Amino acid sequence: MNTEAADTAALLTSAREALERYLEVRVDDDGALTFSHADVPCVIQATRLAEGLTVLSLTCVVAWDLPDDPAIAASAAERAGQGLFGTLGVVRSEKGIDITLRYAFPAEGMSASPLGTLLMLVVSTASQLRTDLLGSVAGD
Question: According to the lineage, what is the superkingdom (predicted)?
Fold first, then answer.
């Protein structure tokens, strides 16, 4: 195993151990971590961008197949401006719109406790956003 593969594998192992304090985590065949929090599916991948700079990338699928309503997209955009942890994305498809929350950060050298706290801040934000969005869709 080369250095890059070893670095990313070690970082994913740290992330898995940090998250397992809170959630059930699965390791996919490619090494990515998958889990769900309050019906929000999430995946974590690791990438080494440069020597000494390995990042974790967390993607949460907040909602999918929502009505393609400009008010929903506007609400997501408003929430995106308020968030500190993550970038919201709105993707249009034939079935409606899908909303994701993505967050990437350098995590090399972080111990389990702060790493778990940071990951759960992002995941909790995604879960709260899902609750808010689904509540606004149901309220229409």
Answer: Bacteria
Tokens of 4: 């890059």
Q: Output the pTM of the full model.
A: 0.90
Could you tell me the fold of the domain covering 3-134? Yope Regulator; Chain: A, (3.30.1460)
- The strand pairing partners of 27, in sequence order, are 33
- Going by the DSSP 8-state scheme, the letter that residue 12 receives in this structure is H
Q: How far is CA 76 from the centre of its chain?
A: 16
Q: Six-digit token pair at 20?
A: 């397992």
**How much is the average pLDDT of 74-85?**
74
Q: Which two tokens stand for residue 71?
A: 């008010």
5-14, 17-26, 78-87, 127-136: range with lowest mean pLDDT: 78-87
